[in-house]
Design brief:
With 163 residues, the protein is an alpha+beta fold. It is built from four helices and five strands.
Amino acid sequence: MIVAVSVCGALSVSARAQTSTSGVEDAPAGRVVTNGSVAAAGASQTLPVPAIASASAKWKEIKDFTYDRRDLFFAGLDQLEATVDAEIKELKTRRAAMKSTVDTRDWDFAMKEMVDSRSYLRSVSDELRKAEAGTWDQQKETIAGAWTRTQNAYDAVRRSTTS
């Protein structure tokens, strides 16, 4: 039997390795599943896991975490930041593939906001990591605004796509 706890897209498994009903080998005890694979710290080999276990964190899943659950909050926030980084990488790849005849002024302007909003999210994330219990909720609201800003910027860049 496998006992697992899902925390914002990470799955910690506390039983020995088994093959699940889907035929995918489950994680051995003490290993953590993230991004579709499982490995112990420093391990060079990973095992695939079902996609449901590697779903990325959503703001709604972590937004109500209290100061006492900040470790879980930060694990989810790290995943959200990784999502933004992946979005930026995707957008830069799309921009590089655009034809030279395409007017990219709107794209470039929107992309600058995307990069700026990522910097802001990182900055307020660093500040929240220093928060005390008394300022936790207020600073967490700042994170909410920063997260929303990144997603609005991402949507704006995608809307400005002309190719």
